[in-house]
Amino acid sequence: MIFTRADLEAMPLQSLHKARNWSKADVFGGERDGVRFVIKDFRRAPVWFKPVARNFLKREWTALRALDGVEHVPRALAHPDADSIVLELAAGEQMDKMAFGTVPHASIETLIELVRTLHARGVTHGDLHQQNVLVDVSGQICLIDWATAHVFHHPRGVRRWLFEEFSALDRRALAKIKVHHAPDLVTEEDLDLIRNGASRAYRSVKKMRRIGEVLRGKKRYGALERKIESLNDKSLADKKR
Questions:
Q1: CA nearest 206: which of 198, 171, 172?
Q2: CATH of the domain at 71
Q3: I need a surface site. Which of 11, 36, 79, 110 has the fewest CB within 10 A?
């Protein structure tokens, strides 16, 4: 599908999301040849932020093209100019707005397999959380917002290390989603990733951050930590049976 900036200007587009601040894109919706699409447009971004915005779009475009044909990922349709990309519309509700018990197990299992697939293709998402996972009425998912994705082609040396670091962060984020919506699918590896960090670099940062939190008097347990402790207690009880 070919789009130019002139095409976008001439189309009757619907404004879906106005940029909340200078770091966000305007999002428009439209339809062409029976295909419903969304446009992420940074044309109104400040001049000083344009290089960063264009890099985000380039990353998203590159990652989605590398995943072309993979289910549960938006299809990249066009890159009209440096300030915009056109994606096939992804339907569904953001997972973070769905109450515990309402997300089908099959949806979480699909997400787990999707993460394995994108890593097998040398792609990391970089911003995997519930707001970026859409679930439709049939339980099908779509992973959106690939602006911080990286594509690694046969990584070696430093790039191999970076791929392992970024893919570990994806797995940690996935583990947190499992804790929230499918605790019975949480593994010991998942708990270790959440408690201790996803990689050596991350674990070092997490340890320093925790020291700072203790010095500021921050409470040890938040909602996520309490859920993890309950999973640990359940695991111990199961082992004693």
A1: 198
A2: 3.30.200.20
A3: 36
**Segment 153-200, tens digit of pLDDT:** 887 888 999 999 999 999 999 999 999 999 999 999 998 888 887 666
Spatial separation of the C-alpha atoms in residues 197 and 193, rounded to whole Å: 5
Domain count within the chain: 2
| One-character DSSP codes across 199-212 | SHHHHHHHHHHHHH
| pTM of the model as a whole | 0.84
Reduce the DSSP state of residue 55 to 3 states and report it: helix
Last residue of one domain, picked from the residues 88, 115, 147: 88
Paired tokens of 236: 């111990």
User: How many other CB atoms sit within 10 Å of the CB of residue 234?
Assistant: 13
CB 124 within 8 A of CB 149: yes
Mark whether 67 and 38 lie in a shared domain.
yes
CB 80 within 8 A of CB 86: yes
Residue-by-residue DSSP string for 158-212: HHHHHHHHHHHHHHHHHHHHHHHH-GGG--HHHHHHHHH-SSHHHHHHHHHHHHH
Which tens digit of pLDDT belongs to each residue from 68-83? 999 999 999 999 999 9
Provide the domain limits for residue 124.
93-240
